[in-house]
Amino acid sequence: MPVADAKFFASSDLPAHRRLLEALAGARVAEIVGRVRAISDQRIAIGGLAAHGAIGDVVHLRARDGSEIAAEIVAFDGPDAIALPFGEISALGPGCEARLSPASAVARPDDSWLGCVFDGMGRCLIGGPAVDGSRDYPLRRPPPPAAARGLTTEPVDIGVVAMNAFLTCGLGQRLGIFAGSGVGKTTLLGMLASHARFDAVVIALIGERGKELADFVLRYLSPEQRARAAVFVSTSDEPAVLRRRASFLAVTAAEYFRDTGRRVLFLMDSVTRFAAALREIGVAAAEPTGVGGYPGSVFAQMPRLLERLGPLEGTSGITAFITVLVEGDDMNEPVSDAVRGFLDGHVLLDRRIADGGRYPAIDVVRSVSRAAPQVQVAEHREALRRAIALESAYREVEDLLRLGLYKRGTDQRTDRAIEYHERLESMLQQEVADRSELEEDVRTLRAILDEIRSE
């Protein structure tokens, strides 16, 4: 509770309300302390905090060996606050002290965060010094209201030929990159980080292997690119609450850079690991599970994260690319199906295309950019319609070609589709270090179509 000096009020000539505000600003705040009541696996029940704590607050636990362990409140069960730890709890037991940190559910992003790598608690691991800014940003900040959303009308050159030509992206658009394991999601995300031109890039590496941090930062980003990037990492071996917190912290940083007038690119690998973390937390909080073993709260929390991205009136918004690990290559599994509905388009990476040696293995027929019609000129839209029709015609006879059951010359339209497909595959093949240009990619596509038509 605030402790104020009564003599201050008696001696000051300031108006009463100003004296009160100044006194409170310098007042000491008593610590709120509870005690561990029970521990089950990673689930810690703490008494004495239910009347003061809130979901998302951090609790500092004093272990029996004197070490301090941080945990996050994820639920309340009667008089007990239920917390999940950020680290090892081997020395923790009933009766251990628990101190509440009620201001811990906020972050204070700053320009100095660019060029740094952070963990899920916001500690700077590489780069810096990263200082706190002057404004509090809640980690669970509500998404902008629908009436405040702007239109996606400005095309973005992202440097990947398949996406520039077929899946043209708009400023402030959110796209998902869907694929099974080992098909090239992270590599494509690295190409976007390297080739897309933005003022600030926020990268969230959630639930992946520890070696991917160095791979991503050192392999795909030059020193100049790293200077305008803020990276947040929480690996697969870390607790679920830390993976979730890193995700929200990364989005919060992206909102700060957007609010300072920058064009912001947000990259997340992967939202599937974020959903898995939410599932672990939900199960620990004793929530009933539903489809796919996921508690209902998982599909409620995912849009609260993803809807904070995207366009915003009066700003450049936050352009986002989110990877989705498709379990068993089944696009209808619960997380893939839900995220596809939350986002503004989906980029499908096909294992058969990857096995054929063409990278990025983007399936341009089955992928969709919902903003493309608004950001493409009429000539581009017409070329795209013809290109998709030809590629679809090729796929109708693809199996016959492999079996040697189709002979060229049988059908003129099919022959054109075959010729087009061979040239298209050559166009879409792109090395990781090579950057393409939007206007040049569109010209190349139109030239291929004009050559096929004239033959």
Element layout with pairings:
Layout: H1 6-11, H2 16-25, E1 33-40, E2 43-47, E3 58-62, E4 68-77, E5 80-85, E6 97-101, E7 106-107, E8 117-118, E9 124-126, E10 137-138, E11 155-156, H3 161-166, E12 169-170, E13 174-179, H4 185-195, E14 200-206, H5 211-220, H6 223-226, E15 229-234, H7 240-259, E16 264-269, H8 271-284, H9 296-306, E17 318-325, H10 334-342, E18 345-348, H11 351-355, E19 368-369, H12 372-375, H13 378-403, H14 412-428, H15 438-454
Parallel strand pairs: 8-15, 13-17, 13-18, 14-15, 14-16, 16-17
Antiparallel strand pairs: 1-2, 1-6, 2-5, 3-4, 3-6, 4-5, 7-10, 8-9, 11-12, 18-19
Helix pairs in contact: 7-8, 8-9, 9-10, 13-14, 13-15, 14-15
Q: What can you see in these coordinates?
A:
The structure is a single chain. By secondary structure, this protein is of the alpha/beta class. It is built from 15 helices and 19 strands. The protein has helices at 6-11, 16-25, 161-166, 185-195, 211-220, 223-226, 240-259, 271-284, 296-306, 334-342, 351-355, 372-375, 378-403, 412-428, 438-454; strands spanning 33-40, 43-47, 58-62, 68-77, 80-85, 97-101, 106-107, 117-118, 124-126, 137-138, 155-156, 169-170, 174-179, 200-206, 229-234, 264-269, 318-325, 345-348, 368-369. The strands form four sheets. It has a nine-stranded mixed beta sheet with strand order 9-8-15-14-16-17-13-18-19, with helices on both faces. A hairpin with a 2-residue loop joins strand 1 and strand 2 (43-47). Helix 7 crosses helix 8 (271-284) and helix 13 packs across helix 14. The radius of gyration is 26 Å and the shape is elongated. The termini are far apart.
